[in-house]
Amino acid sequence: MAVAEDLEVASYLKGQPKKLLIGGKWTDAADGKTFETLDPASGEVLARVAEAGAEDVDRAVAAARRSFEAGTWRELPPAERAKALWKIGDMLEERATEFAQLETLDNGMPINDALLFHVPLAAATFRYYAGWVTKLDGATQQVSLPGKYLSYTLREPVGVVGQIIPWNFPLLMAAWKLAPALACGNSVVLKPSEETPLSALLLAELIQQAEVPDGVVNVLPGRGETAGARLASHPDVDKVAFTGSTEVGKLVARASADSNLKRVSLELGGKSPNIVFADANLERAVSGAFFGIFFNQGQVCSAGSRLFVQEKVYDQALDELLKTVKDTRIGPGIDPVTQMGPLVSRTQMERVLGYITLGSKEGARMLAGGGRPEGLEAGNFVMPTVFADVDGKMRIAREEIFGPVVSAIPFSDEDDLVAKANSTIYGLVAGVWTGDVARAHRVAHALRAGTVYVNCYHIVDPVTPWGGYKQSGWGRELGPHALDLYTELKNVIVDIA
Ligand code: NAD
Hints:
This protein is of the alpha/beta class and 497 residues long. It has helices at residues 10-14, 54-70, 78-94, 96-107, 111-132, 170-183, 198-209, 224-233, 246-258, 282-294, 311-326, 346-362, 395-398, 414-422, 437-446, 481-485; strands at 20-22, 25-27, 34-38, 45-50, 140-141, 149-157, 160-164, 187-191, 217-219, 239-243, 263-267, 273-276, 306-310, 365-368, 385-388, 405-411, 429-433, 451-454, 473-474, 487-495. It has a seven-stranded mixed sheet with strand order 14-15-16-13-12-17-18, with helices on both faces. It has a six-stranded mixed sheet with strand order 9-8-7-10-11-19, sandwiched between helices. Strands 5-6-20 form a three-stranded antiparallel sheet. The N and C termini lie far apart (73 Å). Residues 164-168, 191, 193-194, 223-225, 228-229, 232, 243-245, 248, 251-252, 267-270, 301, 400, 402, 428, 468, 473 line the site of nicotinamide-adenine-dinucleotide (NAD).
């Protein structure tokens, strides 16, 4: 284990193997299995972690069910539940450096991104939903039938919720899932990705310290085909909230249909258009294009992976983009000067390199990148790669690459643009760069995407609804919308004549 002793997270990493949290107890997997999680910058083992299997999922679901039926959490006074969620936010902030280091070592992201974006946003998410706990109100209805009725609605927790999250923003995804589910009074079984299980396990320690009762939050690192599949098909899970690929999202939806028709919400993949009109402030647009695709090494569901540039400024915009790309500092995320870290795993690196080879074969013009940087062969590094003159029919323009690869596509006018931008199976986000306010709104309305950024990109706050059109998912997270995902609406009608 080569983690520097002077890192704040070093002592956390010493206690190994990391265990599963089931019913308030840290426990080994039923079959004793463990797996290694690696530092993607060096390929070295970061920690050994208990690997949950189907039997562990069954134990965790039973523990969650017991806590739910006993009402230890959902029947607490709302202000008490709010206090616990707020405290989790505070503790995340107090231990921000430790969490940021853990996130960087496990996922690869630049430490400054973890410190300035991921950890604060995770803390803010817990605080935002702490505010909702006391406001889960119903309504009254004016019934017109003869007689006299009092009709009102209640918002009740769904019950036992299974949550399955990916590796690209491990802590933030855990916060987006846990905070609203807990605010609504549910009991949860969370399965982090097998690539990045550590920050969710440390978060679970904070949740215990905030005195969330045993069994309300269970955390089970494990593989998708085993632990994930069992959670999605478990007959005693009332709802599954999934973030990951569209392919696996379909399996989750199917597993729900084939088991107990549990409620399903899905946050899936994307192939988002980032659109630069000739009337945009080009400097800002180009830096938005860079940030849109290369943030988190391009491993972002909402990455602006299709860069549409109006013909008049196409060459100029690409020239400017290349200057920024060439100056990018690539290296281990834990080094504070790093702007781009490694990809999460060898598999992901190979996959992305495969798409780069494919892009050249398909006839796209490679302007930058195209492979691995020299001197960093131990890690999963890929250079920021720019393809120009990409045709919408090419696979690199249609499929989610989930890496630092952008496809630049020229367009002539608004109609041409809208048709091209919408011709994808996805619909997560879109970016529009223009100096014309009317055009900004016109195009924003015409794009089929859950979020449209105008003259900005990757702006996410706990209040902004998040989710996709088409095959980018079902439902909306964040804001008050997530409360709909984690509550059932009950109508009570009383004859008061
Ligand atoms: P993935 O679909 O491979 O895995 C996601 C999670 O599902 C992991 O925890 C995995 O273990 C689990 N899983 C795998 N097979 C399963 C199965 N058969 N049944 C149940 N669970 C299973 O995705 P990934 O590679 O971890 O993450 C990248 C994907 O996530 C990209 O497609 C990206 O766009 C998407 N993503 C979407 C959002 C969003 O908000 N829309 C956010 C982040 C990532």
